[in-house]
Amino acid sequence: MREDYPRSLTELEERFSTEEACREYLARLRWPDGFVCPRCRGRSAWTSKRDLFVCAACEHQGSLTAGTIFQDTRKPLRLWFRAAWWVTAPKGGASALELQRVLGLGSYVTAWTWLHKFRRAMVRPGRDRLRGQVEADETYVGGAEEGVHGREMVGKALVAIAAEEDGRGIGRIRLRRIADASAASLEAFVRETVEPGSLVPADGWEGYAGLPSHGYRHKVTVLRGKSRPASHLLPRVHRVASLLKRWLLATHQGAVSHEYLDYYLDEFTFRFNRRTSRSRGKLFYRLLEQAVAADPIPYKTIVEAAWAGNSDHKM
Asked: How many CB atoms lie under 10 A from the CB of residue 255?
């Protein structure tokens, strides 16, 4: 399927004003080369009166949304499409309160849950690792605390950052909440997000010392005793850290619990890595494309996990 997406909110609402139009679009995204039966891999099907796809070979019946984040939804797809637009069109995204308001949803929990479903779809399975020269460092997310110094993280979340160098600018990034600044945590993050053979500039912290044994070229940038600030020695990761914190405060007022921080990091990464896109509609297209490939997350599972979380961990 060629990259086909609306260029404006007006075009979105005109084009996807009916459920049939939404279903046709999702079907093309899910099966760009034509229908594929999940049971027998048959390529031919017909549609029942209940809008189920019936495989012509094995007669397996399944819905268009089965196995996607839209599975079992009782809301119309055209409302989901508007939600996807409001998630991707604003550069800073939308909070659950904003989404509830613009969609006219009766429940804040519904808006919050939809946002988390979309965030889970923002990470493409099997995505390429960063490569070339990739800066690595960590930052704390959370308010300042008296008596906490260095790499201590009492009441805070520690986020590892990897940022590709693109000339003097920043290429792609990866973010991950990590348990601590130990070698085990930092090396696992780099191995998961950076291609072996890459040059990894990092500070002199011992947690990065073992990278050469895993096939990385480790460039030590010692910060202690330097007259230049850390933001000059590792400028890309520090710029990303600053933008991340600003986004969490501006869009979400810092009200992000540690238990769900990873999903907000995924959203920030999704936006940052597509920041040069000329059309916000392309982000809408990418999000729906990944939404039909993502596993379903039951509404009840997300909500129960949310309210079971410790509110004292809000940032």
From this structure: 12
Q: Kindly tell me if the per-residue pLDDT of 313 is higher than 50.
A: no
The answer to whether 309 and 257 are in contact (CB under 8 A) is yes
> ∠221-223-228 over CA atoms, to 5°?
105
Structure token digits, residue 203: 């500070």
What domains can be seen in the chain, in order of their start residue? 134-244 (3.30.420.10)
pLDDT digits (tens, 9 = 90+) for 124-140: 878 899 999 999 999 99
User: Which helix (H) or strand (E) is 308 found in, with range?
Assistant: helix 299-308
Biggest CA pair distance of the chain: 73
Token digits for 310?
């410790």
Distance of CA 66 to the CA centre of its chain: 22
Structure token pair of residue 78 = 């055209």
pLDDT digits (tens, 9 = 90+) for 216-247: 998 887 655 554 455 568 999 999 999 999 99
Q: Which helix (H) or strand (E) holds 261?
A: helix 261-272
- pTM for the structure as a whole: 0.85
Contact (CB, 8 A) for 29 and 1 = yes
How many Å apart are CA 48 and CA 30, to the nearest integer? Answer: 19
Helix (H) or strand (E) holding 171: strand 169-178
With H, G, I as helix, E, B as strand and everything else as coil, classify residue 14: helix
Instruction: Indicate the angle between helix axes 96-103 and 108-120, nearest 10 degrees.
Output: 110
User: Which amino acid is located at 56 in the chain?
Assistant: A
Place of tokens 């509110």: 311
